[in-house]
Amino acid sequence: MLELQKGIIYGPVHSRRLGRSLGVNVLPAKVKYCALNCLYCQYGWTGAHGLEPGAAELPSAEKIVEAVRNALVLGDSPPAYITFSGNGEPTLHPDFPAIVERVRELRDKLSPASRTAVLSNSTTVSDPRVRGALARLDLRIMKLDAGTEETFRRFNQPCAGVNYGDIVDGLAGLRDVTIQALFAGGEAGNASPGHVDAWIETLGRIAPSMVQIYTLDRGYPSREIGPLAKQELMAIARKLDAAGIRASVY
Ligand code: SF4
């Protein structure tokens, strides 16, 4: 399992999907704060599971903006992306919309060649404030691993208050969205043909610009799942292609 990020800025790291990416962790340093508890999470089980931070201590917007400013001023060369990600779900920070605006301003001033991105689990996508902030970013990579409510509950283990139907509706109303999905085999996996077909049908409603699929390649907390073979991922990509959906396999 990966260790949690220790601070606000990490990297720039080399990301297979984004190239040189400056990570911005707007979440606590000591606990993963997320509305999901995915069976495959590289950080292990969720410590602060909810839509409200509770006792989890979040860095202030001021601190986050200052850390991004310092990283851009002191960095060797501009990162390809400034990416909101880190110890859980970044859009849960109550000041996420204001942080996005201020990071955009910094980008325009200090690193105009960089693009802004978020890796989100989509659980807040129906919140109008979050939707507004997502629309201000250059790239929205949004998670959807499940094609049914039942798979979503088993595989992603949402906290109370998170509804699969709201996520699908929210994603369908978002412009230019990239969907990312992890596929795993095993008793609790999401890769059975029936499930993949249901997921592709749901994607038809969302009409994403691109879909990124991948499988387990790091540690994961559940014993009821396992990695897929590359050919199995390729078979899913072929189904997407047949449905007219652009896909990349990682
Ligand atoms: S949404 Fe991401 S951070 Fe949250 S539990 Fe799932 S994999 Fe981990």
The oligomeric status of these chains comes to single chain
The CATH class designation of one domain is Alpha Beta
Please tell me the CATH architecture of one domain by its name.
Alpha-Beta Barrel
Please count the beta strands (DSSP E, at least 2 residues each).
10
Largest sheet: 8 strands, mixed
Structural class: alpha/beta
Spans of 5+ residues with little confidence (pLDDT < 50)? none
**What is the fold named in CATH at topology level of one domain?**
TIM Barrel
Helix/strand order: EEEEHEHEHEHHEHEHE
Query: Roughly how many Å apart are the termini?
Result: 19 Å
Computed over alpha carbons, the radius of gyration is 17 Å
Shape: globular
The residue fraction in helices comes out at 25-40%
- Share of β-strand residues: 15-25%
Strand order of the largest sheet: 1-2-5-6-7-8-9-10
Ligands bound to this protein structure: iron/sulfur cluster
Specify the CATH homologous superfamily of one domain: Aldolase class I
Taking all residues together, what is the mean pLDDT? 97
Q: If helices are DSSP runs of H or I spanning 4 or more residues, what is the number of helices?
A: 7
